[in-house]
Amino acid sequence: MTAPFDLAPLLAPGTPAPAVKWNGFPKYNFIGGHNDAKHVPVEALIEAATTVLKREGATLATYGLNSGPLGYRPLREFLAGKLKGHAGIACSPDEILITSGSMQGLDLINSLLLAKGDTVLIEQETYGGALTKLTRLGVNAVGIPLDAEGLRLDVLKQKLEELKQKGVKPKYIYTIPTVQNPTGAIMGEARRKELIKLAAEHGVVIFEDECYSDLVWNGKRPKSLYSLANGEGVIHIGSFSKSIAPALRVGYIVAKWEVLSRILALKQDAGSGALEQMVLAEFCAKHFADHVPKLSKALHAKLQTLREALAEQFGTSAEFGDPPGGIYLWIKLPDTVDTVKLAQAALAAGVSLNPGPEWSTAKDDARCRLRLCFANPEPETIRKGVEVLAEVCRREFGVPLRSANVDKK
Amino acid sequence: MTAPFDLAPLLAPGTPAPAVKWNGFPKYNFIGGHNDAKHVPVEALIEAATTVLKREGATLATYGLNSGPLGYRPLREFLAGKLKGHAGIACSPDEILITSGSMQGLDLINSLLLAKGDTVLIEQETYGGALTKLTRLGVNAVGIPLDAEGLRLDVLKQKLEELKQKGVKPKYIYTIPTVQNPTGAIMGEARRKELIKLAAEHGVVIFEDECYSDLVWNGKRPKSLYSLANGEGVIHIGSFSKSIAPALRVGYIVAKWEVLSRILALKQDAGSGALEQMVLAEFCAKHFADHVPKLSKALHAKLQTLREALAEQFGTSAEFGDPPGGIYLWIKLPDTVDTVKLAQAALAAGVSLNPGPEWSTAKDDARCRLRLCFANPEPETIRKGVEVLAEVCRREFGVPLRSANVDKK
């Protein structure tokens, strides 16, 4: 009765390889979107939890609390206010759907629009998770190169024309216009308006991902695409992962009700986690406006620590910019470096990094690039981690030749 | 630039109809799995939140806290202990995956095993959400009739043979063996062993859903199928929705690592909500064992209130049993009653109910049946709601003829 059971003949086609066991975080953790542990507002979260549970803890007895399937209403009300001031978005709380992280937002929007064989346009360097999801869905993701202001509209226009001539109607243009992942670019308002015009001409949805837009060092940002288009043809997503804490799985979708009602019909999870929503709403109403600049300041300092460490350890071998916000630095190493191999060797030495090809549709071009997330490690760990990374890189690829002003040859 | 955008040409095929706006709960709420508001342990949850956040709130800065993708380790440790004592399951915390409600468990297991056109075996009367998901996936759900002990194995055996002769290999047998939804049946240990033998002979997975097994009035239950099969060929899911609070979206999957590692590879959500997991783990370690009997006692009393109210208002027109646990009563009305129509008319009068056909694969047989959830409304609301329901039923279908000892003709 308890003979070993063979599951293999029952698996659905295309099931991914089994996960490997998790063995803890690496010593020098530069991957993912982990955040600054010292800036989790623990005391204020405790206060928020206490207040909101005392007041309405009994509502946990009903699915969706007393707020219905769009999510906890006070959180949607906070967001409506925040989005108005921050992103120029005039929407009602009923045009906001709370999701379990912005990843669920991605999944829902993909479910709404995409079938196998469809085509989407996407920034050439972009969020690896978005690329993975598209690959799994069997969707053709056409990469559009970026410049210092993000999406290059000349190439986008050309691709849209090409696809039109081939009779292919792309479903959406996925963009992270405000602190692009991984380049950090912020698209200016003029280009945003052009993008909206172009997308409307071709009847393509703009899928605007604003997960990082709270973390701009000088606090200034252009109006969101959603705002500039009055919500027509734009679906907007955001998250609290980067501005409060990533382990809280709370994101949101903003869309016109005609669109949101269709997305809501696809959200078959009996609601997102209530406690996270309640505590966030209570916390944010009081503290969000003060919390974010403090976090941004700390992140900006860590970015500078990382840039200095890279300059010191890699010299001219590492090329990178000075992003205006966010938690990532996108780095180019010499063409001889294969960052997929580098990532494996570095991990063995305790350093985790995201190799370029996982974050790009142009795999060859990205072969010598990598993304480092600087938000989680403390400054001393950043310095030491970059030192270890330079040692590994030198051992494996012979670069950097000199580092920390010492000739290593 | 802001002309109305037409999304229709871009929608994926088979997109469901848009959701309708939510207008609050009905006055007499007998649907869903809502629970008893007076028994949400608010003070203990506040204490748990305070303790756990003080101790390890800073870990919210990393995805998955410090526990990796299987979920918060102290919660998995609590579950390993609870499942051992309660369900006879000997498993390690690494054979438990925390999910965002048991609904995500259903989705993940469906993703692992099912493709369009596949066949599964399912209890004839069963959880409506499971049926909806199977319909959406284009899976053929073959219903097996139930008796007082649940799944009828004589019919199951016959169906398995029939399918084998047709060359169809069913993927799983979905069962809720401990407090069946909606009938409340508990399958005895002898039948469980027979079921395991039958499934193993045919190489079919048993998908065991134990969402209600904590709520047994006398606290006694047979060992789980997972336990009796030593985990071979069984995937087990459970939830905290019914034992603590449904708005907390925390469920779990128990499976051998060879199976769980495949399920984990499909869980692409960057983890389930951390705060809910942390607070539950802290709460449960101290209070779960005391909390559940108190909740069960209150629910049992509500069930008796509902049964008395039905007897009073419907007389012999309503047939129902006396389930040994859970939060539902499955009721048969005279054959002339169409419960789908009754549900619409009742809702207009403020009474929500689940019509039988949504909870059954045998739509005709279930036409005169309905499910009432008695956990949420207070006793007086139960009595008044049943009175209103009887009035609506009499108006629409002419039954019950007599109620509350008053001839209504």
Any overview of this molecule?
2 copies of one chain form a homodimer. With 409 residues, chain A is of the alpha/beta class. The first copy, chain A, has 2 domains: 24-40 and 290-404, Aspartate Aminotransferase, domain 1 (Alpha-Beta Complex), CATH 3.90.1150; 42-287, 3-Layer(aba) Sandwich (Aspartate Aminotransferase, domain 2). Chain A is built from 12 helices and 17 strands. Chain A has helices at residues 42-56, 73-87, 101-113, 128-137, 153-165, 189-202, 225-228, 257-266, 274-314, 339-348, 363-366, 379-397; strands at 28-29, 96-99, 119-123, 140-144, 146-147, 150-151, 172-175, 205-209, 234-239, 251-254, 319-320, 328-332, 351-352, 354-355, 369-373, 402-403, 406-407. Chain A is globular. The N and C termini of chain A lie far apart (65 Å). The model of chain A has no long low-confidence stretch (mean pLDDT 96). At the A-B interface, helix 1, helix 3, helix 4, helix 6 and helix 8 of A face helix 1, helix 3, helix 4, helix 6 and helix 8 of B.
